[in-house]
Write a structure and sequence with these properties.
The complex is a heterodimer of chains A (400) and B (177). With 400 residues, chain A is α+β, with helices and mostly antiparallel strands. In chain A, 40% of the residues lie in helices and 21% in strands. Classes of the chains: A alpha+beta (400), B mainly alpha (177).
Chain lengths: 400, 177
């Protein structure tokens, strides 16, 4: 095959860049010996390259500046919305009241921030850039018009400037049309919506709904585009008709109510909750919600246990509540799970439970202490004396 | 500090923040080229590079394949530049408030400032795929192999783009004289 001069020009560039293969070297030299045009091109490329070398970027000062900025970076940015969820009827009422009546000034942070920010993700999140999908990292602002998707391995949380919170399940694609206006192309989203000037509007291939404030779970499975809605708190209006806090299909086609326990419907958010601090109120609420259902199906206990040590504060909140408002079955379940999931920070709390009124709770606390510490003592007094002598190892760090 | 990008990412995740310093040193010039190609020599290139690294640091936990830190960072840098361009369109930014107006520090002799300025203008005027390879190559000499990994192109395609970019620049610089 004979190459033309345009093709030899690529070889000339490769030679200049130190990228010419050994196999091409001799043929190139032979061609140059015979072709005056290519010799001129080679000289022009060399002269040009000497000029372009002046572009060389001395990044030393910039590197030091970036390193200093990274060192100055403290905790990841966090919004102020984290204490909200609704998983039990009582909690629902409280949260709805909070959503509806908290004055806007108290909801907003003092620092202006983007309308939406990707707060956290369990795996890769991508945004549509021309005809490509590019990585989208937590901390990035989400501009109106942006389309984001979670991969099969990722779920994510998005914070809105109005305090609202959106969560996307795996394999979900959402277009953020403008603040408080979201189009769910496929997948599933969970939204905690605060009251704002305008209703929060969601659309899917099936239709539209809006809410002034509330907590809802919206799921659409492409390409069949069957959209289901669960309103966990507040009120959502499908098209122009109000929907009760219930499950309805967006096309006004009723769906079966089976398996529509809110904890079941929204079980997918547990992976995101597990990323949070164990004292996060939403984590504690979910833990207590799951606990009240232990015994109905194995799912609830396995989900509860999957929180691991993060579930301990929620379980302890049930066991330590004064006055004791939880029935004995729930308290015993809490103690039983706690004995298996509690960590070193719970040693002091477990030691206190050795004086609980319920022997099942006491026995579970004993079992947990032995598991964590490797020490096997019998009486509460012995444990208390042991703890006093080992506080430097086992005492729970004080909260800031 | 030695090791692959993946090793360094793992070290940062395990609490060794200084490992990120090495990632900065490895990638700053390359990301400078990317940002420069997206927002032009007169944009706040250094601010964008810093923003990209900060965003990457905050999001390091979400990086699924640590060995692909470079291409992941590349996407973040593009996003940071796009955010800036959008904010600029909305009139939310003051150019005066953002660093060195030339955006860059260059080494080498400062000769014929007019010709240098023309060269930068002509680079900025290249179509983006060509501008990108020129800047990646000359900011901090990247091998074809390194560029091909970053841009998801074959080394032959990198060679073809550089060839075309240089030819366009020669033609335009000759026409600008």
């Amino acid at each position: 095959m004979t190459m033309n001069c345009a093709e030899w020009e690529e070889k000339l560039n490769a030679e200049l860049d130190g990228e010419l293969s050994d196999a091409d070297r001799a043929p190139l030299e032979a061609h140059l010996a015979a072709c005056a045009d290519c010799r001129r091109t080679r000289d022009a490329i060399r002269a040009q390259s000497a000029e372009l070398e002046n572009l060389r970027f001395d990044s030393k000062a910039l590197e030091e500046r970036i390193i200093a900025a990274v060192h100055a970076e403290t905790a990841p940015r966090r919004g102020g919305f984290r204490s909200l969820t609704v998983l039990t009827a009582a909690a629902a009422l409280i949260v709805v009241a909070t959503l509806l009546f908290l004055p806007p000034d108290e909801r907003a942070t003092q620092i202006p921030r983007p309308a939406m920010v990707l707060e956290s993700a369990t795996g890769p999140v991508e945004w549509a850039y021309r005809d490509r999908w590019l990585p989208f990292a937590p901390g990035n602002a989400i501009d109106p018009g942006t389309t984001l998707r979670t991969t099969e391995a990722a779920k994510c949380e998005i914070a809105c400037a109005d305090g609202s919170l959106l969560r996307l399940d795996r394999a979900t694609e959402v277009q953020f049309q403008e603040p408080r206006r979201i189009h769910l192309r496929k997948g599933q989203l969970f939204a905690t919506v605060y009251a704002g000037r305008d209703p929060f509007r969601f659309t899917t291939e099936d239709g539209a709904l809006q809410t002034d404030a509330g907590i809802l779970d919206l799921s659409t499975r492409h390409p069949k585009a069957v959209t289901t809605l669960a309103v966990l708190a507040g009120e959502a209006r499908i098209a122009e008709r109000p929907a009760p806090p219930d499950n309805r299909c967006v096309n006004q086609k009723p769906i079966e109510r089976s398996a529509m326990d809110p904890l079941l419907q929204t079980r997918w958010i547990n992976d995101l909750l597990r990323l949070r601090d164990k004292n996060d109120p939403e984590v504690m609420q979910r833990v207590t919600g799951l606990l009240t259902r232990v015994g109905r199906s194995d799912f609830y206990e396995s989900e509860l246990r999957a929180f691991g040590e993060r579930g301990a504060p929620g379980l302890l909140s049930i066991l330590n509540r004064t006055p004791d408002s939880w029935d004995d079955v729930h308290r015993r379940n809490a103690a039983r799970v706690l004995a298996d999931v509690a960590g070193p920070h719970e040693v002091e709390s477990l030691a206190k439970l050795l004086r609980d009124r319920d022997s099942d709770v006491r026995n579970a606390a004993q079992r947990g202490l032995v598991r964590i510490t490797g020490v096997n003592l019998k009486e509460p007094e012995a444990w208390e004396a042991w703890f006093k002598g080992n506080q430097d190892v086992w005492a729970c760090p004080k909260k800031e | 500090m030695n090791g692959s990008d993946g090793d360094l990412v793992s070290a940062v995740r395990n609490g060794r923040r200084e490992a990120y310093d090495e990632l900065v040193r490895r990638h700053a010039a390359k990301i400078g080229a990317v940002c420069r190609s997206r927002i032009g020599a007169r944009g706040p290139v250094e601010d964008m590079v810093q923003e990209a690294f900060l965003r990457a640091y905050r999001g390091l936990a979400s990086l699924d394949e640590p060995d692909k830190f470079g291409s992941w960072l590349y996407g973040i840098a593009i996003r940071a530049c796009l955010d800036w361009l959008k904010a600029k369109e909305r009139g939310q930014l003051s150019f005066d408030a953002l660093g060195d107006p030339d955006g860059l520090r260059r080494t080498g002799p400062v000769e014929e400032p007019d010709r240098n300025a023309r060269l930068h203008d002509q680079i900025d005027a290249l179509p983006e795929p060509y501008r990108e390879v020129v800047l990646l190559f000359y900011y901090r000499k990247q091998s074809y192999q390194e560029m091909s990994r970053l841009l998801n192109l074959s080394p032959a395609a990198i060679n073809a783009r550089l060839t075309k970019a240089r030819a366009m620049l020669r033609e335009r610089m000759a026409g600008a004289l």
